[in-house]
Amino acid sequence: MPMQDQQVLVTGGAGFIGSNLANHLAGQNTVIAVDDGHLGTPSHLDAAVEFHERSVLDSDLPLDDVDVVFHLAAYSSYTMVEEAKQAATRVNVEGFVNVVEQARLAGCRQVVYASTSSIYGSQTEPSSESMPVTVRTAYEASKRAREVYAEYFRSHYDLALAGMRFFSVYQGYGGAEAHKGEYANTVAQFADAMARGERPEVFGDGSQTRDFTHVDDVVAALELTAEAGLSGIYNVGTGVATSFNTMIEMINETLGRTIDPVYVENPLPVYVHDTCADASKLEAATGWQPTVDFSDGVQRVCRPYQ
To answer: Model-level pTM?
Structure first.
């Protein structure tokens, strides 16, 4: 069932996933979006969303009468965190604790927050939430810390907290993803480059794979998770892995191009080569299933260029 007549706060609410979620929920709920403008773009928000330019580190967030918090604000990639480690850790970890504590004191019943699938490392088989995870980067450490603090809040205060391990979320520059620029998903970056006749740059030989998950399915997963009042950790992915080479072929076919990628040596000291989600836990708890297969998703990403 869709959420109805709830008071909702979305942190990172002017960002990529946050703005899609806020706009979707605003149709039948009262939605407040908080964003500090680091990557968020308030113009992505519908008029029905109440926007506050605030940091998740602030001590007086607008949480009065809020039923559900979707905590999506974060430095959201390996490179982004490495370039500003102290600031990113404050936002990703201290900001998480600050938001959840204020939500708890305000009487909020549910927090749904962004974690990451990166902590699974490289996996060619579908990763399940029961698998051991490894922290190899500051970004992964900050997201894993969220999960640990969430367990504290759950066990100490009996607060419902659900951590969502997203797998390669995309929408394309025709949606709300353009503001991320170099941090946007490779689908968006490659499609934009190829539409302009440029060759996309690929690390290695292009055999690396991702479980590309459309933002519409992520929004549905977040809503269903909150509506079910879940606690714990949940994967959000399609269970289908696609190589970069295949993705480039699909973009070429959709755009009517014949552009070859440029293969370069991988400059990153830590790189996840393959990802694939086992989202059966979320499906069992909520009935959620992805509805946008990747071929449809590529069509959507490329449509603004056609």
So the answer is: 0.97
**261 located within any domain:** no
Q: What would the pLDDT profile of 35-54 be if each residue is shown by its tens digit?
A: 999 888 999 999 999 999 99
CA distance 185 to 248: 13
Count of domains forming the chain: 1
C-alpha 286/C-alpha 126 separation (Å) is 19
Q: Is the CB of residue 25 less than 8 Å from the CB of residue 3?
A: yes
Residue % of the chain over a pLDDT of 70: 100
Choose among 40, 37, 33, 36: nearest CA to 15.
Answer: 40
Write the burial class of residue 203 (CB in 10 Å: 0-12 exposed, 13-18 middle, 19+ buried): middle
Range of the domain at 12: 7-171+213-239+278-291
At residue 210, what are phi and psi to the nearest 5 degrees? -140, 150
Q: What is the DSSP string of 81-106?
A: HHTTHHHHHIIIIIHHHHHHHHHHHT
- Just list the catalytic residues: 139
